[in-house]
Specification:
Distance between the termini: 46 Å
CATH architecture of the largest domain: 3-Layer(aba) Sandwich
Helix content: 10-25%
Number of domains: 3
CATH class of the largest domain: Alpha Beta
Strand content: 25-35%
Radius of gyration: 26 Å
CATH topology of the largest domain: Rossmann fold
Shape: elongated
Number of helices: 8
Strand order of the largest sheet: 13-12-11-14-15-16
Structural class: alpha/beta
């Protein structure tokens, strides 16, 4: 960070300090000569995503002799946007629908949108829609079809950012849910998918490319504490109008319980953070029912590994 102070008086000034908020550490300024401009530089190491400084810092001085204290708000010329931390992720989930992006073609790798490439034994996590019932009856075990994949799947990520269903703090489920969405968005955009996102009052329709990643990460960095609940996000007209092949909802075990009865969520993949393993101990009502999870995240230490290897697609391979 860089701060500049001008002293228009003919005598020097001492005892200046810069403090963003009361109770936080301050930066002390050396003496400023008369009728000069002085620049001070120091390092800021943010511990969590956000926009810095949180509010305009105050500049104060007790010169001379500390007889009185003069304060003034500094003018912010530029802000620092700190993105959420991201981790490598597994492949885009196998598509269960027939949605394709205009201009894309299918290719000879395993998916679920093109011609049939072959059959194989059923593996846990396979869609029942892909079961080959005639072959299953013949072999007395479940057999599924392997189809071609869409060259550019369409993904919609929904984040439950309501503080009421999360534990708080930098290691709480809310901050980690934001990191999970950021990781999935950047990882799948890098893989060539079209990715959209919905959280709070923000909605990004599915697009591809690095500009989409920047838009999503900037919005996640600016996300405040007053976000609306997941049910409102999923029920909004823009989200309902998206025809995506893959829908992933990231929430806590409390947030998932609040929306599992919604009929339009039958094909949603759930990434659920367990509140008991993330920081503050949860003191709310116990969860009675939960959806079938696509990705379970029990503790912060497990998140990087499970994002990369914990899904059915990552375990089974292409």
């Amino acid at each position: 960070m860089t701060a500049t102070v001008a002293n228009p008086l003919p005598w020097p000034a001492w005892g200046l300090e810069i403090r963003e908020r009361e109770g936080e550490p301050s930066v002390h300024w050396p003496a400023i000569g008369g009728r000069t401009r002085s620049t001070l530089r120091w390092t800021l190491s943010p511990g969590v995503r956000g926009v810095y400084p949180k509010e305009p810092p105050g500049v104060s001085s007790g010169f001379p002799f500390g007889l009185w204290d003069v304060r003034r708000r500094a003018v912010i010329e530029s802000e620092l946007i700190v993105w959420p931390r991201t981790f490598p992720v597994g492949p885009v989930p196998i598509l269960d629908g027939d949605e394709v992006v205009e201009g894309n073609v299918t290719r000879n790798r395993i998916g679920s949108t093109g011609d049939m490439l072959g059959v194989r034994p059923y593996r846990r996590g396979d869609s029942p829609r892909r079961i080959h019932w005639a072959q299953s009856a013949r072999h007395d075990r479940l057999i599924v079809c392997e189809l071609q994949s869409n060259s550019r799947p369409v993904v919609l990520l929904a984040l439950d950012a309501a503080a009421s269903v999360h534990t708080s703090g930098t290691d709480g489920t809310r901050e980690w849910a934001i990191r999970v969405v950021a990781s999935l968005a950047t990882g799948w955009l890098d893989a060539g998918a079209r990715v959209g996102a919905a959280f709070g009052e923000v909605f990004f329709p599915p697009l591809a490319g690095t500009e989409q990643a920047t838009r999503i990460l900037d919005a996640l960095a600016r996300l405040g504490d007053d976000a609306r609940p997941l049910s409102d996000v999923l029920g909004s007209a823009p989200v309902r109008s998206v025809r995506s092949s893959v829908r992933v909802v990231v929430t806590s075990d409390a947030g998932s319980d609040a929306v599992t009865k919604r009929a339009e969520l039958a094909d949603v993949r759930w990434a659920i953070l367990q509140r008991s393993g993330f920081g503050t101990e949860w003191g709310g009502d116990p969860v009675c029912r939960r959806p079938k999870n696509w990705l379970d995240l029990p503790t912060p230490g497990e998140v990087p590994h499970r994002l990369r290897h914990g899904t059915a697609e990552a375990s089974h391979g292409p």
